[in-house]
Task: inverse folding
């Protein structure tokens, strides 16, 4: 396909150069946004009398036809074209002749591409946020079901203190709520309209930039033409926000993988979300969770790509910036794919309450509560801590738990102990008493669910 900028060139572009230079294979997905951006631009050109009103109308009608034709499969995007902008403008001119050639008045591909990516990513952010909301909703439902399900809470992957499974799930809901906030924030800064920046130095035409911005649903227009065409902060910010989403999904995946193992068996994944082995008949593998954990690397890589592409670019546009699209689209697609698989996997998993409870019964996770019992009887915490440590050592020697250690042994370490200690170290009570705001008890989990549901309904 002929290039738009042919005028000053005497030779055709070498095929290798075209293949290398072309971005159509990855920017073709922006066809709708490119067309909608052009429609708004044409409307503004007509309104300001920069082009004839009738020509503006013809251009808009023809762009609509092109959009419909691409969508219905009547028109194929030419993969030899330089980029989507060239292709659409070429098609418009092929259909409209002279009038089509007026569309690019007061516009450059530099501000055009800056506009298109914003339009695409703005939509992608909404889609991703919706998927995150769906996952948070599933977490709230599961947490409600398991607000009294006792499980061991861990530090250093060592059993630490008793919590509820509902509380554990709501920790992920809290992370994902922050992800939603971050995405909204990225979108807010992204939602600035760059058309009018031209190639780099604005334009001499009397544009109504605010009108174009309004037609396309932007909150503001860019203030500096050099920045307008060369800002890709919003891609980097989005990749960073998506990287954090992946950090959260990856941590969650790691736990799913551990919990599915025979060593834990806290959960069982549904058959529809697990895979088998080609040789070991007994296997049921958590491949989805492993893939999500693995794919986090791609998204971090995309962020690094974008940072590296941008860090040495002199103002304003440089072709290096064409590299933005593959990286940010990959990040967006990866996160969407991960969420699509992850949410139903969580939704359909079976929780093995008994195993969680049994694990919580071992590992002395009520030792802090035992020390707190002594504190309740007036002992300073440090002394109580030491006395409880001695009791734990005794239990380990005799292969007992704090629940099964006889009262005489308690008394031998500290006379303050009485038989009400067994009540104080009862796991259900230990959790129930953790009533502090943000704690693991049932009311606290209910409160977390309430607040979270409110957040995702906005
Ligand atoms: N395909 C190009 C990109 O993605 C569009 C902008 C081209 N501008 C230019 N001056 N060559 O960045």
Result:
């Amino acid at each position: 396909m002929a290039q738009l900028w042919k005028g000053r060139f005497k030779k055709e572009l070498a095929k290798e150069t075209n293949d290398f230079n072309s971005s159509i294979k990855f920017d073709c997905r922006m066809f709708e946004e490119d067309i909608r951006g052009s429609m708004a631009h044409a409307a503004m050109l007509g309104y300001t009398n920069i082009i004839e009103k009738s020509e503006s109308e013809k251009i808009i009608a023809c762009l609509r036809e092109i959009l419909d034709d691409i969508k219905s499969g009547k028109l194929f995007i030419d993969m030899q074209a330089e980029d989507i902008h060239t292709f659409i403008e070429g098609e418009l001119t092929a259909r409209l002749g002279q009038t089509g050639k007026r569309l690019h008045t007061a516009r450059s591909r530099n501000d055009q591409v800056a506009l298109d990516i914003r339009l695409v990513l703005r939509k992608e952010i909404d889609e991703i946020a919706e998927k995150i909301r769906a996952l948070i909703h599933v977490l709230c439902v599961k947490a409600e079901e398991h607000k009294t399900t006792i499980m061991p809470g861990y530090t250093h992957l060592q059993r630490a203190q008793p919590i509820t499974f509902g509380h554990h799930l709501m920790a992920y809901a809290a992370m994902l709520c922050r992800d939603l906030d971050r995405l909204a924030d990225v979108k807010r800064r992204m939602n600035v309209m760059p058309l009018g920046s031209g190639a780099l130095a604005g334009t001499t035409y009397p544009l109504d930039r605010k009108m174009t911005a309004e037609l396309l649903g932007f909150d503001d227009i860019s203030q500096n033409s050099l920045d307008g065409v060369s800002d890709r902060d919003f891609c980097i910010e989005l990749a960073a926000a998506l990287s954090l989403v992946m950090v959260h999904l990856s941590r969650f995946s790691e736990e799913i993988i551990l919990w599915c193992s025979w060593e834990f068996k806290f959960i069982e994944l549904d058959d529809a979300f697990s895979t088998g082995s080609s040789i070991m008949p007994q296997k049921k593998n958590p491949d989805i969770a492993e893939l999500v954990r693995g794919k986090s690397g791609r998204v971090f890589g995309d962020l690094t790509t974008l940072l590296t592409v941008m860090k040495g670019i002199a103002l304003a546009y440089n072709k290096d910036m064409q590299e933005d699209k593959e990286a940010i689209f990959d990040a967006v697609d990866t996160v969407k794919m991960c969420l699509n698989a992850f949410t139903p996997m969580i939704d359909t998993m079976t929780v093995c309450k008994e195993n969680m409870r049994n694990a919580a019964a071992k590992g002395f996770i009520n030792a802090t509560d035992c020390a707190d019992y002594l504190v309740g009887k007036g002992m300073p915490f440090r002394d109580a801590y030491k006395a409880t440590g001695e009791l734990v050592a005794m239990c380990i020697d005799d292969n007992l738990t704090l629940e099964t250690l006889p009262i005489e042994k308690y008394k031998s370490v500290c006379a303050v102990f009485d038989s009400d200690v067994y009540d104080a170290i009862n796991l259900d009570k230990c959790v129930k008493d953790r009533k502090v705001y943000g704690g693991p008890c049932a009311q606290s989990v209910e409160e977390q669910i309430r607040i979270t549901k409110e957040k995702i309904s906005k």
Remarks:
- The longest strand covers residues 158-164.
- Residues 109-145 form the longest helix (37 residues).
- The radius of gyration is 30 Å.
